[in-house]
């Protein structure tokens, strides 16, 4: 995740500056996605058809220095998005893949990555607003970039096989299953990003074939002392995720939350 640092103006358009962390610069990039919130700021009390469709033209450019030292913009993404009038009134998040842009910046990094986003409807009607950093802005709607890095760590060969299953897999033994957690379904609107993530979970039985690995647990279970239980299928390794969220004082916090993703399951 990248932070918005400041904004400036280039050819009448506001420039958003992102500061990339050393972790991003020093690792191989997997994907980078720019998130933009678009909304029509027309507060007149006029009636409108909420299902009326609009086509938005979205351009994302990078501001760089040309050979003469002046500023120049390079277009990296241009596409069209169709949405309803209701979406425009309420506001909607748009996602733009900027992986190539960020990769090129990382090869020759500067102080910050400068981006210009231009959003217009098919009639070039004004009023479509992408929020930019300022003291008056709603910081929950600020543009941000989600970054995922490739895992190039050379891992040792595991002595046991990690089992991955799906809901359709006919497997009764302890296994890792996919699970997507959607924070919006919980009503957790204080989380800015990500809105959802792959959490995974463990489920299944731990039969006597695990006796060699957990002999004490099985023997205690067979002895049946009060309060004892057999081997339980549970996470063996968990990793963290990065999150952007509001604290109790409505400050925007960027942090790494440990123990959020199940990487492997086992009996213990």
From TrEMBL:
UniProt-listed CDD domains: TGF_beta_GDF8_like
Domain of life assignment: Eukaryota
UniProt GO MF annotations: cytokine activity; growth factor activity
Record-linked InterPro entries: Cystine-knot_cytokine, TGF-b_C, TGF-beta-rel, TGFb_CS
SUPFAM superfamilies noted in UniProt: Cystine-knot cytokines
Subcellular localization(s) per the UniProt record: Secreted
Domain TGF-beta family profile, residue spans: 156-268
Coiled coil: none
Pfam families membership: TGF_beta
GO cellular component: extracellular space
Keywords on record: Cleavage on pair of basic residues, Disulfide bond, Growth factor, Secreted, Signal
Matching Gene3D superfamilies: Cystine-knot cytokines (2.10.90.10)
Database matches in SMART domains: TGFB (SM00204)
Entry-linked PROSITE patterns: TGF_BETA_1 (PS00250), TGF_BETA_2 (PS51362)
Sequence similarity: Belongs to the TGF-beta family.
Record's protein name: TGF-beta family profile domain-containing protein
Organism: Bombyx mori (Silk moth)
Species lineage: Eukaryota, Metazoa, Ecdysozoa, Arthropoda, Hexapoda
